[in-house]
Specification:
Length: 212
C-alpha cells in the first residue's frame, strides 16, 4: 500500500499469512474494499483489516464468523463477517478492489464454478486484483477421486456425501480470466507433508491478476 509503512503493517496485523499477500499487498489500492470469498480460519481477513483495508469475509462456520466479529470489535477493525455462501452474498453498489479466492474452486461443482467466475467479474472493476489458488489434475488425490466418485463434469466429481472436487487442467487458469493482466502465475507440485522428502504431491495453482 502506497500510504502504509510495511513495518507498521507487520506490527499491527502480524506477518502475512501467505506468500501471495506478502508479495502483492502493495498492489491493492490503499484503504480499498476486499472480499475474502472463503475466510477459512480468518487469518487473512484479520491481517488485511489490520493493514488498513475494509474487509468483508464470508465464513464457512458460525465460529469463524463470531471470532472475526469479536476481533473486529476488540481492535476497531473495518472487518465484517457473514455466515453465507458466495451464491448468497450481496456485494453492494461499489466494486471490490481485491477478491481473495483461496482453494474455493476445488470444492465447488462445475456449475457453481461458472457462477463464481461470473460473480468475480461483476463484483470487480478496472484495476481490481484477484488472488486465486486451485488444484490441477496432477494432484495426488485426482486418481482416487476420479475412480471412486461420481463424475459431475470435466475433471469434476461428486462424493457420497454430496461434496465436490473439481480440478483444472494444467495451463488453463489464465484462459478463465482473459480480461485480466497476470501479475503472478505458478503451477507446481510440492510434497504433501510438512517434512516429507518423498511421496505424494499436491497439484497447486496460484494466480494473481489485475482486471483491465
Amino acid at each position: 500500500m502506497l500510504e502504509t509503512n510495511v513495518a507498521e503493517v507487520v506490527e499491527v496485523a502480524g506477518e502475512a499469512p501467505d506468500a501471495l499477500l506478502d508479495d502483492f499487498l502493495d498492489q491493492i489500492r490503499p484503504s480499498g474494499r476486499i472480499l475474502d470469498l472463503d475466510a477459512g480460519d480468518g487469518r487473512r481477513a484479520r491481517y488485511l483489516a489490520g493493514a488498513g483495508y475494509r474487509v468483508t469475509a464470508l465464513a464457512a462456520t458460525d465460529d469463524v464468523e463470531a471470532q472475526l466479529t469479536g476481533a473486529a470489535a476488540a481492535a476497531g477493525l473495518d472487518l465484517v463477517a457473514y455466515r453465507e455462501s458466495i451464491l448468497d452474498h450481496d456485494p453492494g453498489a461499489q466494486p471490490y478492489d481485491a477478491l481473495l479466492c483461496y482453494d474455493l474452486l476445488p470444492r465447488l461443482s462445475r456449475t457453481d464454478n461458472a457462477s463464481l467466475l461470473h460473480r468475480i467479474f461483476s463484483w470487480t472493476a478496472h484495476g481490481s486484483l484477484l488472488f486465486l489458488t486451485a488444484r490441477h489434475v496432477d494432484d495426488a488425490s485426482y486418481d482416487d477421486v476420479s475412480a471412486t466418485w461420481e463424475r459431475a463434469g470435466l475433471h469434476s466429481f461428486r462424493g457420497p456425501g454430496g461434496e465436490y472436487r473439481t480440478y483444472l487442467a494444467r495451463g488453463v487458469v489464465r484462459n478463465l480470466f482473459r480480461g485480466w493482466n497476470t501479475l503472478h502465475h505458478r503451477e507446481y507440485m510440492p510434497l504433501i507433508g510438512e517434512n516429507a522428502t518423498d511421496g505424494p504431491r499436491a497439484g497447486l495453482i496460484e494466480l494473481v491478476a489485475r482486471r483491465r
